[in-house]
Design goal:
The chain is of the alpha+beta class. Helices cover 21% and strands 26% of the residues.
């Protein structure tokens, strides 16, 4: 059954200033040939997002609405929560309000690459890796964090789409609906684990730093659990150090 997903999206575009020029056009086609957003590694994409202050503010407020600016974030965590050589591996992102260490939120990220090629064919890569993401997110839940989410980052290069309005140059391949946007129904995913879709869209040939859209959809909210005292103690200690 078809269902709608609502993404909270922010778009930006930039143009270089020129001496003597008084008018500028934004969100217009660009035929530059900068690297594709789909070339981003997973950790690189997460870092790029977290370096965006508007994204941080909006995204963190979804989980800590009262004081999102006070939230601390940690990436690539291992000890004392887990270990490099043991499942579930590194913790991709942990959000902590220092005043609420018993309500930490953990995120496992998995990226999907979507590219519209010049031939018009849409190419989607890395879908099989979602099964590994489910396994890792279940592992985070087993550690005992208050909330756990599986986040699918969709790196969408839509520069070769021919939509007149470049703001709508993102791919709509049906296999995304069937293989990616159905994760909330997966019987392999623990029922308490939430699902978030996060799209980074490259609309033109400009560098992703100069023109992009970022949108996220919390498709399934995590069900909070009572965080074990020993995990809360470790989180409080981590939060107090930096």
């Amino acid at each position: 059954m078809t269902r709608q997903l609502l993404f909270k999206t922010v778009m930006m575009d930039s143009v270089p200033l020129a001496v003597g020029q008084s008018t500028y056009s934004f969100f217009t086609p660009s035929f530059e040939n900068n690297p594709s957003v789909a070339a981003m590694a997973e950790a690189e994409a997460v870092s790029w997002l977290l370096n965006n202050p508007q994204f941080r503010r909006d995204f963190f407020a979804e989980f800590f609405p009262k004081l999102p600016g006070a939230v601390r974030y940690f990436t690539g965590l291992v000890e004392p929560f887990t270990y490099h050589d043991k499942k579930p591996g590194d913790i991709d992102l942990l959000l902590v309000d220092p005043d609420l260490p018993h309500k930490a939120v953990a995120f496992e990220f998995k990226r999907i690459k979507v590219v519209r090629e010049e031939t018009g064919r849409e190419k989607i890569n890395r879908i099989p890796y979602l099964a590994h993401g489910i396994e890792q997110a279940n592992g985070y839940y087993a550690i005992g964090f208050s909330q756990t989410y599986l986040v699918v980052i969709i790196l969408d290069d839509g520069r070769h789409l021919e939509t007149p309005n470049i703001m709508f140059r993102y791919n709509k391949d049906r296999s995304l609906d069937e293989s990616v946007y159905s994760l909330r129904y997966s019987s392999d995913l623990n029922r308490e684990v939430g699902v978030i879709y996060l799209r980074i869209n490259q609309m033109t040939g400009k560098h992703i730093n100069h023109s992009h859209s970022i949108g996220y959809c919390i498709d399934k909210s995590a069900i909070p659990i009572i965080q074990p005292a020993d995990i809360t103690s470790k989180i409080a200690n981590l939060s107090s150090k930096g």
